[in-house]
């Protein structure tokens, strides 16, 4: 197994999300063992009405999750940050803003896991190849999240390409709009290692999608690497591969660190 040089991971899930495993303490031990210096927990954020409950913890469990992370933050030998990965829908903006301003969290990341169609039904890019209309809706939801000002970075922006074998003018223009908005707002975009564990074809990850990142590099996006681990075994599994991928596509990396106030901030990375 090859080594990695970026000693952070701030996209991490645990048993709390219901589709992952490992306690908060077990992750911290694994991070210390593997030489990470900064570990951020970003559990899928529940909503007060338990909307999307099948992919996240119950709303009532937030307190326990936050307590577990805060305990480790005091006891661990490495830096720990407490966050949530949030699906953004304008109707929950007030809730998310309150959470952000509550002092309970150190950062919020957005990920667009569900797209709402005009008839009120939902589709996930994880399980379906998106139609044209759904791709545009993905773009609008993603850009809405960026523009909300709530989020410190944006996870797997190229998820709309999962399952797709096309990369035509529509895909390119959607990618350009998403990347352009992230650049304009100085919000880092994430290359996500979890999709490297799901191969779509022998020569193709489910995500990240290479041409998206070539474009991101050309447009000057700031980029962060995450394993998006859902088990302790996967905490650093794709880290070296992520660095190779980033290098191959020529992206500009930024590195998360901890501000004096204990919040997430960014510094330049690489030589
Ligand atoms: Zn998850
Ligand atoms: Zn995600």
Report what the structure shows.
The protein is α/β, with parallel strands linked by helices and 271 residues long. The protein has one domain: TIM Barrel. It is 32% helix and 20% strand. The chain has helices at residues 24-34, 62-75, 93-101, 132-147, 169-184, 210-219, 239-249, and strands at 8-9, 38-44, 79-86, 107-110, 115-116, 122-123, 153-154, 189-192, 199-201, 204-205, 222-226, 252-258, 264-268. The strands form 4 sheets. It has a 5-stranded parallel beta sheet. A 4-stranded mixed beta sheet has the order 8-11-12-13. A two-stranded antiparallel sheet has the order 5-6. α2 links the parallel β2 and β3. α5 (169-184) crosses α6 (210-219). It is globular. The model has no long low-confidence stretch (mean pLDDT 96). One zinc ion binds at residues 85, 111, 113, 155-156. One zinc ion is lined by residues 13, 17, 19, 44, 230.
Brief descriptors of the model:
TIM Barrel, four-stranded mixed sheet, single chain, five-stranded parallel sheet, 7 helices, binds zinc ion, 271 residues, alpha/beta, 20% strand
Q: Quickly give the CATH architecture.
A: Alpha-Beta Barrel
Portion of residues in beta strands equals 15-25%
The mean pLDDT is 96
Instruction: State the shape.
Output: globular
Number of domains: 1
Q: Over the alpha carbons, how many angstroms does the gyration radius reach?
A: 17 Å
Write down the CATH class: Alpha Beta
SSE pattern, N- to C-terminal: EHEHEHEEEHEHEEEHEHEE
| CATH homologous superfamily title | Metal-dependent hydrolases
Ligands, ions, cofactors: zinc ion
Note the main sheet: 5 strands, parallel
Work out the helix count.
7
Structural class of the secondary elements? alpha/beta
Strands ordered across the widest β-sheet: 1-2-3-4-7
Low-confidence residue ranges: none
Helix share bin: 25-40%
Number of strands: 13
Kindly report how far apart the N and C termini lie: 23 Å
Instruction: Output the CATH topology.
Output: TIM Barrel
